[in-house]
Every structure is written in C-alpha cells, then in structure tokens.
Amino acid sequence: VSAILEHPVTDGEFALISRYFDFARPRADVVLGIGDDGAIVAPPPGRQLVMSIDTLQAGVHFHADGNAEDIGWKCVAVNLSDLAAMGATPHWLLLSLSLPAIDHDWLQAFSRGLRAACEQYDAALIGGDTVRGPLGITIQATGSVDPACLLRRDAARAGDVICVTGTLGDAACALLHYPALERDNWLYRRLYRPLPRVEFGRRLAQFAHCAIDVSDGLLADLGHVLDASGVGAELDIELLPISSVLREACIGDLIIEAQLRALTGGDDYELCFTMPPAALAGVMQLAEELEVPVTCIGRVRAGTGVELVGAMPALRDRLAAQAAGYDHFRG
Ligand code: ADP
Ligand code: MG
Fold first, then answer.
1. Which tens digit of pLDDT belongs to each residue from 134-181?
2. Less packed terminus of the chain by CB within 10 Å, N or C?
C-alpha cells in the first residue's frame, strides 16, 4: 500500500529490498519470489500447510540497541520453533519490517542474521513489506506436514510421559545478566541465538502426538497443552533439565532460583511433548541420533492443574507470588 500522508515508495526502497532481503537460494517450490505483488509457491503434493506468525517489537521482545545480526537470527528462529512444535518442515517466510530510519549498518547485520537462519533451516524469504515506524519485525512462516504425522496441543492423554528437549531457564537467566554478557557467551546465545528444534520436531511427529514450544515458560506452555487436552499433570522438580551454567549462575541463591527459572522463564524455544510410554524408546533413539538432549519430567493424568512433586516450600511460595501468570499451578 502507498503512504498517502508521506512520500510514495521510491526506487531507493526497492534497491534496499534487493540489497538486503533478496538473498533466497532458488527453491524448486518457489515459482515467483521477491519482486512482484505477491509470491507464488507450489505446495508439496499430499501434505498440509502449517502457518504461523510472530511479531518482535524493540524494547519488548528484543533490546532496541541489541546486535542486529542476532535480532535477525532470533526473529526467524522463534517462528521456526512454532513450526517445529507442529512437526512441520519449514519452507517459506514473509517479513514485515518497520524501521525508524534507514541505517545501512543495522540492515546489513540484520540481513546477515536473517539469511544465516534461513540457510540453516532451509527456509526461503519470498516476500515482505517495509515501512517507516517504530522498530518492529513480523515474520510469517509456512511449512508443511504429513497429515498423518503432526503434533497438536490437544492430544495429550492420561498416562502419557511428559518430556522436554535441551535445558530450561537459560534465556531468562541471560536476560537478567544481559548487559554484562559478550556475544559469544553461552547464556547470551541461549537468549539471542536460539536453535529451534526443527529436525527433531519434524521426526518426533512419528512418535508423539502432542507438543508445544516453550516460549512463555514451561508451566505456562504445558498449561496450554493440558487445557487444550482436558487433562492434568505431575512434574518432578528434581528432573527438570537445568544447565550447569544456570546452576552456577544461581550459586549463592538456593537451587530454587534455578528451578523457578526453569519453570517460569520464557524464550527457551525447546519442545515440550507428551507420548504414550511405549513410544519412549523410539524418541530416545531419535534424541541420540540427532544429539538432542531429551528429559522425562513428569506424566499426564486425569484431572486438571499441575502437581509439583518434590518442590521445596520456598519454591511453592515463590511460584504462588508469581501465580497471576500461572493459573494452572496447584500446590
Ligand atoms: P507493493 O507496494 O506492491 O506492496 P512493496 O514495495 O511493498 O510492493 O514490495 C515490493 C516487493 O518486495 C514485493 O515482492 C515484496 O514482497 C518485497 N518486499 C518488500 N519488503 C520486503 C522485506 N522487508 N523483505 C522481503 N521482501 C520484501
Ligand atoms: Mg503491489
């Protein structure tokens, strides 16, 4: 659309798009990419399309003065994490970018991060929109699934085992220490260079029926699964996968500080999934093959809410104090 109150689209803006965003490698399924009024793609025969969209706003979802390359990576990664949680294979992305000004250094770095994530996960940026406004990034991602193999939130059943990939709470810890962290710091990378579990999610769909990505915190996100599935769960606090880095960062505090972050910290982009116990062996073999750590942390049961087995009273108190956001928590 044209900005009727400001200047019309100029050749400069088209040059900007071709310079920074027209980097996709040709994919056989992209009939027409950037440059026309719309992109044209050929959906893979026999599969269903999965679509997701996420907006990241400066000062809300990333630091306004943060590293632009890492912001570019992260805005792709968080979208691909949603596709991974559906068991989907990513194909195409659309980018809507709102920029306060044209800053070539920023755009160059942003484009580098965006491109690296696209290439890492074989997703093509096929179009978008560029406007002047407060710094904000919206990405729409489309992938595909085999309709017989997908991961939904409403498919958890009493008796299922609850598992999670990787470790939890690291990104929340990184946020706390953010200004002091170098870009190559492991915690910083957990926050700004998340590695969505795309291949694992895609192959998990043969074994599990239910998954969600942990973007808002384990209790909140598992809560969505339980709600949608009409079941409850018990989690064993001692089993929560907590990285040695998070453990050490919480030294001086009680272990409950680390547990609290693992339960409520956001931005980890790990997968939480449930499956019948009989599927566990297959999942563990997949985990080994793909070198993705998988930990069983609890079990789905009839009823509602989450029972925290092995939680110290101090942890329960801290959770209760935060309870507004975690209405699933039950002592
Ligand atoms: P229109 O005015 O027809 O909507 P635009 O000037 O918005 O066209 O975009 C021109 C072309 O560039 C389109 O193919 C569009 O998809 C693409 N495009 C615009 N902004 C971006 C962006 N930030 N990233 C990728 N592609 C973009
Ligand atoms: Mg047009």
1. 999 999 999 999 999 999 999 999 999 999 999 999 999 999 999 999
2. N
Q: Report the residue among 30, 32, 34 best suited for mutation to probe ligand 1: largest number of ligand atoms under 8 A from its CB.
A: 34
What single-letter DSSP state applies at residue 209? S
Asked if residues 165 and 197 have their Cβ atoms less than 8 Å apart, the reply is yes
89-99/161-165 β-pairing: unpaired
Strand (E) or helix (H) holding 50: strand 48-57
C-alpha of residue 95 to centroid of ligand 2, in Å? 15
Whole-number Å distance between alpha carbons of 321 and 303: 24
Which residue has 């700004």 as its token pair? 192
Instruction: Please give the structure tokens belonging to residue 202.
Output: 């895609």
CA-nearest residue for atom 24, ligand 1, is: 128
Looking at ligand 1, which residue's alpha carbon is closest to its atom 19?
Answer: 129
Q: What residue ranges line ligand 1, CB within 6 angstroms?
A: 9, 17, 21, 34-37, 95, 97, 125, 127-130
Whose atoms come closest to the Cα of 1: which ligand?
A: 1
This prediction's pTM: 0.93
**DSSP bridge pairs for 121:** none
What is the CA(15)–ligand 1 centre distance, in A? 11
The whole-number average pLDDT for the span 107-129 is: 97
CA of 219 to the centre of ligand 1 (A): 39
Q: Is the dihedral of CA 225, 226, 231, 234 positive or negative?
A: positive
C-alpha span between 303 and 301 (Å, rounded): 6
In sequence order, the 6+-apart residues with CB closer than 8 A to the CB of 145 are: 47, 48, 50, 86, 87, 88, 89, 205
CA angle 81, 85, 89 (to 5 degrees): 75
**Alpha-carbon span 217 to 264, nearest angstrom:** 4
